[in-house]
Amino acid sequence: MIKLKNISKQYHMGDVVINALDNVSMTISRGEFVIIMGPSGSGKSTLLNILGVLDLPTRNHGAYLLEDVDITELGDRELARIRNRHFGFIFQSYNLFPELNALENVMVPLTYAKRPKAERIKRAEELLEMVEMTHRLKHFPNQLSGGEQQRVAIARALANKPTLLLADEPTGNLATEQGNEILSLLKKLNEQGTTIVVVTHDPKVSTYGKRLVHLQDGKIVSDKAIEQS
Amino acid sequence: MIKLKNISKQYHMGDVVINALDNVSMTISRGEFVIIMGPSGSGKSTLLNILGVLDLPTRNHGAYLLEDVDITELGDRELARIRNRHFGFIFQSYNLFPELNALENVMVPLTYAKRPKAERIKRAEELLEMVEMTHRLKHFPNQLSGGEQQRVAIARALANKPTLLLADEPTGNLATEQGNEILSLLKKLNEQGTTIVVVTHDPKVSTYGKRLVHLQDGKIVSDKAIEQS
Ligand SMILES: Nc1ncnc2c1ncn2[C@@H]1O[C@H](COP(=O)(O)OP(=O)(O)OP(=O)(O)O)[C@@H](O)[C@H]1O
Ligand SMILES: Nc1ncnc2c1ncn2[C@@H]1O[C@H](COP(=O)(O)OP(=O)(O)OP(=O)(O)O)[C@@H](O)[C@H]1O
Ligand SMILES: [Mg+2]
Ligand SMILES: [Mg+2]
Fold first, then answer.
1. Nearest CA-CA partner of B166 in B201, B197, B125
2. Which ligand 2 atom is nearest residue B148's CA?
3. Chain A 97-116, CB below 8 Å of chain B: which residues?
4. Pairing of strands A69-70, A16-28
5. Cβ(B103)–Cβ(B125) below 8 Å
6. Which ligand gives the minimal distance to the CA of B174?
7. pLDDT, position A188
8. How many A-B residue pairs are in contact by the CB < 8 A criterion?
């Protein structure tokens, strides 16, 4: 499904070059559940952004093949179309639209499927019920706690039934029990066919995945199947 | 040092009243290391903001005595003075100044102590070295990873050698090893006299504290000493 070949992402700060990603290659097949771990600053969010075509590798520093098409050759509109219809994102700092309330935030991705408004409202309410946020539908992001914002972001990421779900620390602001509920939900979605990539610092989260990739200083240092218990 | 008496914090959403904090009373003595846990939305960040005088209880809903002075009677300038000179904050979403780089962010609290600039730069560099961020001094917040931003926020919170340190999920974006380094640092500061209140979802973090307070639906449901191992 996805092939990253020799991807590098460089930032230039004056005359210093920072290799946020350094010659990274990996293949992700449909239906996988990949966990990405590594120290702070090792390149995890950068890798996730490139996987989700929110960002591109540095020019001439690798290829991203999505179903064998090199996406670095596609135009912005085509990238946006792929991203909006097929990918779901949960960002490290949630990234809800501050001017929309919880319900409206979850309805945004549903506009791409062009369903009638009443149907979109119903679907958004069901998603928010799934993450136990029914009691806060009309709250704006700045009227929600950290974990509540994170749960709204999770509901929004799942709205379009994405084929690829990319989650950066999806349970970082949730207590253990609530975090486990979200992870069980992700596991169920994966069993139903969604390909999932989760960045996490929590070793417990990694037990839900099927494959564990370790990053360090922008490089993949290990990439193995997880023993399913 | 701090006495909260029957504190309530209410938000009015149309005709619904949300009790973010509901009749909370607690006393914090100098040198304590208090851990606050509880489900998402239970009132932890609200409690921390009130403890740090960033927010006030709802009118006529309780008193906050700081060294026996009712701070709800003080004016904004006096509250700001106490806060800037004596308290250090690590917020749930870091809250760095986006227009200042890492070094400048850490230097901001040092302006209150009115030391010469060269001294402030040196102190800020030492703090950033303590959280292993020496390699990113000139980066702006949007050029830093989540955990790097969190570490800069920690350095900034410690800049003024605060008597009271309030930390909301201070290791939420750090890998286990890096998180443990920060917690050992907090433990050392506490042994040297800093009063510390940490909100966390991570049971491992709670092992560093001396007292554990559980919140649920805005109420304190348990408040006990932690067995030191
Ligand atoms: N400005 C506001 N208006 C209305 N409700 C609010 C506002 N701010 C917070 N709340 C509500 O108050 C409750 C407590 O919020 P708080 O941020 O203290 O929770 P928390 O325990 O820190 O949660 P988390 O673990 O998710 O960060 C939440 O249910 C939230 O929806
Ligand atoms: N815009 C930028 N300019 C310069 N350097 C950057 C920029 N964005 C990221 N970096 C650097 O690239 C490196 C990788 O960042 P990334 O956000 O991918 O790390 P991460 O593994 O997600 O870390 P964390 O666990 O702390 O979230 C970091 O060291 C960071 O300082
Ligand atoms: Mg990150
Ligand atoms: Mg909170």
1. B197
2. 26
3. none
4. unpaired
5. yes
6. 2
7. 95
8. 88
